[in-house]
Amino acid sequence: MNTKIAIGVVAAVLLLVLMLPFVLNSLRAPAPEPEPAVVAPAPPPPPPPPEAAAETREIPDFPVLYSPPPRTPAQYETRQSQSSGPALTAETLVGTAWEAPSPYGPVTIELGPNGQAVAHHSMVGSVTGNWSVHGSKVRASVSFMGQSMSMDADIKGNNLQVQGRSLRKLR
C-alpha cells in the first residue's frame, strides 16, 4: 500500500472522529424549556397596631457612660519582672538554658557546671563549648568545624541581654 494513501486514510478517520461531536450536537433536538414554577401568592401584610397600644414612652436624655473593663494581659504577654528570683551569678547560671537568636535560626545554649556549655541548633546539632562570668558579663564560646564562635551577654537582674535584647530563658 502506498504511504500517501495510508496517511490520507488516517487523516480522514481522525477528522471524522474530531468532527463527530459537533455534528451530533447540531443534529440533536433542542432541550425543552422548563415550565415556570407555580408561585404562591404573598401573605397579606400584618394589620396595623391598635391606636391605644401605640403610646410612646419618653426616654430620659441621660448621657451613656461606658468604660471598658480593665485590660488584663494575655497569658503569652505576661513577663517576669526584674525582681522575681535572685540576680544571676556564676552559681545561679549553672543548669540554666537560654535561647539566643542567630542569623540561621534560634540557638539553645545550656550552661553546665565547671564552665561547660552545650549549644543546640537545628542545622548543626549539639556542640560543646565553654562559658564564663566576668563581673556582669557572660561569655559563651564554641568551636565548630575549625571556626570559633562566641556570644557576650550582659546580666540585667535575672535576665541575660545580647545587644540590648533579652534572651529567652528556657529553664
Overview of the molecule:
The structure is a single chain. By secondary structure, this protein is an alpha+beta fold. It has a domain at 87-169: Uncharacterised protein family Atu4866 (Lipocalin). Helix content is 17%, strand content 30%. A 9-stranded antiparallel sheet has the order 8-7-6-5-4-3-2-1-9, with no helix packed on it. A hairpin with a 2-residue loop joins strand 5 (137-144) and strand 6.
Summarize the SSE layout with pairings.
Elements: H1 3-27, H2 90-93, E1 97-100, E2 107-111, E3 116-121, E4 125-134, E5 137-144, E6 147-156, E7 159-162, E8 165-166, E9 168-169
Task: Please give a handful of descriptors for the protein shown.
Lipocalin, 30% strand, single chain, flat, 9-stranded antiparallel beta sheet, 171 residues, alpha+beta, 2 helices
